[in-house]
UniProtKB/TrEMBL annotation:
<protein>
    <recommendedName>
        <fullName>Probable membrane transporter protein</fullName>
    </recommendedName>
</protein>
<feature type="transmembrane region" description="Helical">
    <location>
        <begin position="38"/>
        <end position="56"/>
    </location>
</feature>
<keyword id="KW-0812">Transmembrane</keyword>
<keyword id="KW-1133">Transmembrane helix</keyword>
<comment type="similarity">
    <text>Belongs to the 4-toluene sulfonate uptake permease (TSUP) (TC 2.A.102) family.</text>
</comment>
<dbReference type="InterPro" id="IPR002781">
    <property type="entry name" value="TM_pro_TauE-like"/>
</dbReference>
<feature type="transmembrane region" description="Helical">
    <location>
        <begin position="68"/>
        <end position="88"/>
    </location>
</feature>
<keyword id="KW-1003">Cell membrane</keyword>
<dbReference type="Pfam" id="PF01925">
    <property type="entry name" value="TauE"/>
</dbReference>
<feature type="transmembrane region" description="Helical">
    <location>
        <begin position="95"/>
        <end position="112"/>
    </location>
</feature>
<keyword id="KW-0472">Membrane</keyword>
<feature type="transmembrane region" description="Helical">
    <location>
        <begin position="6"/>
        <end position="31"/>
    </location>
</feature>
<dbReference type="InterPro" id="IPR051598">
    <property type="entry name" value="TSUP/Inactive_protease-like"/>
</dbReference>
Amino acid sequence: MILTLIGFLSGIISGMGIGGGTILIPSLVIFNSMRQQYAQGVNLIVFLPVAIIALITHYKKGNIDFSFAKLIILGGIAGAIIGSILAMKIEPSKLKKFFGVFLLIVGTYELIKKKE
């Protein structure tokens, strides 16, 4: 039941474009005692179908600028390769800390940024 709830909340966040991994990864580590690397792997598998549904929905609404997307995809592929290699080499405890710091930075930014 807890995994279904985690997936539901992660899906909502993903559909909003925020990134379901911000919910999914910490939840798997905290509530299921999963190693950080495994949680990241699960996140990647879960991401695919969720991203496809979100992509279709946003495409139908005309919310995608393909000229930006092409450039970001190229950088994202290179970053994914490097990030995956690094994640496998970093100790799980250090990876948790890096991920936690990243979430704090993003959360702080979201709290203090000016309204558009």
